[in-house]
Amino acid sequence: EALSFIKNSVDKEEPFFCMIAPNAPHSPFNVPKAWQDRYRDSGEPETYQRFMGMVSNIDHNVGILRARLEEWGLEQNTIVVFTSDHGDLCGEHGRDNKGVPMEGSARIPFLVHAPGVVPPGTVVREALGTVDFKPTILALLGVANPGTDEGRDASALFRTGRAPDGW
Description:
By secondary structure, the chain is mainly alpha-helical. It has six helices and two strands; from the N terminus they run H-H-H-E-H-E-H-H. A two-stranded antiparallel ribbon has the order 1-2.
């Protein structure tokens, strides 16, 4: 649906916004069999195979999105953000799911592809929260923010890899 929207509904000369929010990886862990079977010989429980199959399916589809952006000449002027609201423990520390402040559930990816804005290979080690996403992305886009957010503009972290003064 996102590819169809970008291909058929977006004026490629004008800014656009498209948010993709898959439910995966999430219970009930329904994943196409081809992705589930990828981990059949892992020795892990069935639920873990399904979880990892969902993750692999998402990775595959993000790859397709990136390839289409390149094919349509949009890759160099499109900011792509990949993130999640939480991780899952998948059995670490004898726990499943989320809800405890451990690495597997609390530390999530926040990947930003922004040619000419965020240098490739930049690593941000500061802790951010979901409330920081909006002011940060608006700043990376050069869009004025009304300043009524609870979050902080972390764009300097992405541009330079260093926290701004007073962070």
